[in-house]
Amino acid sequence: MNSRAKNIQLGLDAADSAIFQSSKIWAKYSDEKADVAHILIGMICQLAQKIGSEKAMRALAIGSADEPQFRLLEAAFRGGLYLFDIDNKALDTVNNKITRQFIKNVQTVQGDFVNVFSSAQSTQQCLQSQLGHVKFDLITLHHCLYYCNEATWSILLGHLLNELLANHGKIHILLMAVNDEREDTTEALYRHFMRQFYGEYCPQNVRTLYHELQKNEQFSEMDLHLDTREVKFYTHDFAEYMAVVWMILLYPHVHQYSLEERKDITEYVFDHLWSQQKPLIQLQDSLIISR
To answer: Residue 245: is its pLDDT beyond 80?
Structure first.
């Protein structure tokens, strides 16, 4: 088996990677972790100024996986850091760390956020039964809204705002940005295969959400700040590269590509990106909602 064929098979096998493992690879070989930390530090400083040092702050990370920002959030939110995710394997990794390092202020919660926060009642029940009864100063939704119907985003955010967010609190959303003018981004890669396999491309767009919230009465007194940022990813290991590509292409949790489609994807990425040592460039929309 030649080198290309061997790598193609490795790339196909990488489609079976757990999403939290792909997320760890992304965090290891991209500059996103430092970029997101910069944003979080700014929000933490603002919260500390408003709340004061006498109150221990609390945070909820929705769709956290094993939380790349664990160290920063654990240190800043001594009143409690709750990591909420559907993937038990990711949360087991966190629980092992919590036990091994005698961490007292971090708890994990397993569940489907789309269902749990789908109504005001279920959101309030979750707060009382699983989230420690006290509202949160910071709620993050980093790369998890891909798994939620865009039409329900503002409804879900309304429940978080009304039922879970404390006074002076902040919600931070991070999602791949839509930019039709760029052909060198992860979004362009996603767009390419959506049009090839499904004939259409209907992207989830945080900018659309931003404009909707500006008109939404629930958010009329909230400060909304939208920013687009660029991060890069590359690894010399093709299997790891493809593990991240499968995560970006939302396989298998959203799109169930056939074996032939997966072969097309893997060969395209090998020939046009990885073998030419091209990094994956991701434009990301960062939306901060501040009370």
So the answer is: yes
The answer to whether 105 and 80 are in contact (CB under 8 A) is: yes
Q: Is residue 1 pLDDT above 70, yes or no?
A: no
Diameter over CA atoms, the chain:
64
Report the 3 state secondary structure along the chain.
CCHHHHHHHHHHHHHHCCHHHHHHHHHHHECHHHHHHHHHHHHHHHHHHHHCCCCCCEEEEECCCCCCCHHHHHHHCCCEEEEEECCHHHHHHHHHHHHHCCCCCEEEEECCHHHHCCCHHHHHHHHHHHCCCCCEEEEEEECCHHHCCHHHHHHHHHHHHHHHEEEEEEEEEEEECCCCCCCCEHHHHHHHHHHHHHCCCCCCCHHHHHHHHHHCHHHCCCEEEEEEEEEEECCCCHHHHHHHHHHHCCCCCCCCCCHHHHHHHHHHHHHHCHHHCCCEEEEEEEEEEEC
Residue 140: pLDDT above 70?
Answer: yes
In sequence order, what are the residues at sequence separation of 6 or more whose Cβ sits closer than 8 angstroms to the Cβ of residue 222?
A: 161, 213, 289, 290, 291
The residue to which tokens 């100024």 are assigned? 49
Residue 146 has pLDDT above 70, yes or no: yes
